[in-house]
Here is the input.
Amino acid sequence: MSNLNPIYFDHVSSTPVHPEVLKTLQEFYPIHYANAEALHDGGKVIGTMVEASREQVAKLLKVKPEWVTFTSGATEANNAIIKGIAFANAHRGKHMITTSVEHSSVLDTYKQLEEDFGFEVTYLPVDSNGRIRPEDLKQALRPDTILVSIMHVNNEIGTVMPVETCVKIIRDHSKAYFHTDEVQAIGKVPFDLSYVDAASLSAHKINGVKGSGVMILKPGVKILSLISGGQQENGRRGGTANAIHNLLFGKTLRLALDDQQNHIASVTALNQRLRQHLRQMPNVVINSPETEVSPFILNFSVLNLTSEVLLNWFNAHGIYLSAQSTCNSKQHHPSITLSAMKVGTKRLNGALRVGLSALNTPDEIDRLVAVLQEGVAKYGRP
Ligand code: PMP
Here is the structure.
């Protein structure tokens, strides 16, 4: 372990809780323990605050409060949307479409529907920038396609997907619903939920608490509730709600969106600085695209070293980053996105993902580069 303060470059994986969110959490937790559904005043007070948070979320996302369901995170939201729509619409068709580079909470859900419930799933391929081609989507759509899921921003390399173009194609050529995973987009790139049928968000990626998310569902979307068992969340999600987390979501989102422009500006500068350094290093290839990309994610490969050696080296120097999606980090298979991009073995094995935030500094970027150069000089294959 390094004696220096750790440098955190894993903000794609999770982020520190915003001090204002933490303050409210600490203030509310000991006193607002009543069940938000209870009819006494204790319940009403917290219930009212949760509804205020729902209204705030709706206003900030430009949707209606009734479309907002609080969940335990985006993994639950993705599961609830995809399985819920699949089960409620199976009589219309059993074909579904997604991309080959989704987060595992989407990919594994589709695989389960395919393997255990007889649905047929088309996984759209990606180009060398990790981006799907709208023509492929057009060709894949069928009269029995009931749902298309396309993430807005890829969580491994940052590619922004052409979601608006895709929605037009879906509307013009099918009756399928459109779902998007907005987890890495909200607060990081411009978004517009007016054209989606369903979307998923997570609090801990935008300086909120873990175990907190939102699913957006437009009226008219036929969906089966994944969690039965109560009147909570308009019957869409049973179980005693984590009211404190739900009321914090509104504040978390407001803070993220209030500061969005400043965050984008400072992170873009950090991203450029890192790219400039990396471009000068032999044996380094930048995997994130140059354009149509989130500045918050910079993925690159060191061709003469493995990710594992580099991660250990960085960790020993107090620098935290990752090689791929953290939800797959212990499964010993290479990055889903880079595999789908069909990059060569060396690029696949030597990939690193830097998750930037406005809390990072130019000095930290320079330290990252210096430690990288040292590691390559020490361990790099000739
Ligand atoms: N989708 C994407 C794109 C993600 O990056 C993540 C976080 N790893 C998730 C979904 C899952 O979010 P949560 O941690 O809230 O379940």
Q: What stands out?
A: The first helix runs from residue 19 to 28. The radius of gyration is 21 Å. DSSP finds twelve helices and twelve strands in the chain. The chain has two domains: 7-17+260-379, 19-258.
